[in-house]
Amino acid sequence: MSDVKNILLVGVGGQGTILASKILTEGLVEAGYEVKMSEIHGMSQRGGNVSTQIRYGKQVFSPIVGKGEADVIVAFEKMEALRWVEYLRPEGKMVINDFEIPSVPILMGKVEYPQGILEELSEKVSVIVIKAAEIAEAIGNSKTMNIVLLGALVKAMNVDGADWKKAIVNNVKKGFEEINLKAFEAGFQL
After folding, report:
1. In the chain, what is the straight-line distance between the N-terminal and C-terminal CA atoms, in Å?
2. Domain Pyruvate/ketoisovalerate oxidoreductase catalytic, which positions (predicted)?
3. How far is residue 170 from each of residues 53, 150, 176, measured CA to CA in Å?
4. Any residues with CB less than 8 A from the CB of 134 and at least 6 apart, and which?
5. DSSP-based three-state secondary structure for 38
6. What share of the chain in percent tops pLDDT 70?
């Protein structure tokens, strides 16, 4: 049996999915794991779907997570959770940010944002819902919801030997280190 763990982070362009993945990857490498990461951008950097696949363990040969293989999926937006659920393994967990970003067809009035996503997913898989946007706003910057979600993920992963503070400081824009550290801690305490 493989010791490799598979994580997907999925969201919409502009939510900081790739930044969270880079911080996670750096922390896992520092903790002594071999890590492979792959990122996919949708049709546009802002508003298109974005996913990152992270695999870590003693020996990892590929960065690709296949359908039914993810141990954890972190969805930065509810519709993305619905789009990626088939990648979750039967005993996996899905962490969902209770947040909506309407797609272009929704903004144009051609379709409505799907209702009941959280309820539908809860009937199929193990779901943890986080209101990361509210938490990020409460600490002073709504753009840190990605780091709130990262903190919650890291806590659930229970990885020893990583300096998460260093990984955050190394990857966020200068001048935003402290607010991102607060966001990470808020997510970690969930």
Report:
1. 31
2. 13-189
3. 21, 15, 11
4. none
5. strand
6. 95
The whole domain housing 106 covers 5-188
Number of domains in the chain: 1
CB 6 within 8 A of CB 70: yes
**In the beta sheet, which residues pair with residue 25?**
none
Beta strand pairing call for 70-75 and 5-12: parallel
Q: Which residues, in sequence order, are CB contacts of 150 under 8 Å at separation 6+?
A: 20, 23, 24, 184, 187
Structure confidence by residue, pLDDT tens digits, 34-93? 999 998 766 545 567 889 999 999 999 999 999 999 999 999 999 999 999 999 999 999
99/106 Cα distance (integer angstroms): 15
User: How, if at all, do strands 49-57 and 34-41 pair?
Assistant: antiparallel
Q: Write down the residue that tokens 């010791």 correspond to.
A: 3
The residues near 136 (Cβ < 8 Å, ≥ 6 apart) are: 142, 143, 144, 145, 147, 148, 183, 186
Tokens of 69: 């293989």
Helix or strand holding residue 31 (H, E): none
Which CATH number belongs to the domain containing residue 107 in this structure? 3.40.920.10
For residue 72, what are its two tokens? 């954890």
pLDDT band per the 50, 70, 90 thresholds, residue 1: very low
Q: Kindly report whether the global pTM for this prediction surpasses the value 0.85.
A: yes
pLDDT, tens digit, for every residue of 129-145?
A: 999 999 999 999 999 99
